[in-house]
Protein 1
Amino acid sequence: MFTGVYYFKIDTKGRISVPAQFRANAEGKFYVTYSPDKSLVVYDDKGFAEFEDRLKKLNDFDPQVRDLKRIFYGGVAPQDCDSHGRIKLPPSIIDFAGIEKEVVVNGMSNHFEIWDKARFEQKHQQAIANYFQNSSAMTGKLD
């Protein structure tokens, strides 16, 4: 399980640190791709396989499905942690996520996100402002 919020800096080679407990959970192998939130989503082998199973069930004759798969799979950058616990992010996905220097790694249970720090703080403030309203609305959907 990936939980917690961590702050790092991206180096000049596009590498970021991955929290030690995340590396241990995933044995140091990750799949990085685009997120609809203009951040990056990162899966371990198990999480990637689960999401891929869901994608395989979608109708490939639907143009929205094809677009989703095209972006998701085209953006996937499999990464192994180096000896310092870092993964390298390709320039195209760094640009997509608007990552400048400071990044936030945010745990999301079966995956984690990588955000530009300023973009994350803005999104986080919006989420906190709506937290109680959203949690009340979602509670009924948990049954």
Protein 2
Amino acid sequence: MKIRQATAKDLPVIHNLVLELAKYEKAAHEFTATLGDYQRDFQEGVFEALVAETDGEIAGMALYYLTYSTWKGKMLYLEDFVVREAYRRRGIGEALFDTFLTTAKAKGCRLAKWQVLDWNEPAIQFYRKKSATIEQEWWNGKIFL
């Protein structure tokens, strides 16, 4: 297994992995970003990603971007993190997540942050094993434009 920085050539696979994640989260109907959106936004530097390769196949990815916490300073936000079902329980997710954290440290971030659905117990347990704080008091707000 190899973890590497994603390139523009990886975007079709990354897009498909996000669709897999949306299906897992029972929200495929909400996944409206196109491959063209990904390609444009990647080229503009809106986000970066890591991919995990096994046997020449991309088995998983972590998509993230730099943001700012007014309380803590620079932070890296993990937008999506997924390992294909056939590749789970092989340490790929842990390697991707650890590389994401290493990337955050290398960028001088003081905080790494993400969301996890309250019913996704396997993910919650994974993050807890990493000594993550799982906040339950903050509610998310959003407006679709």
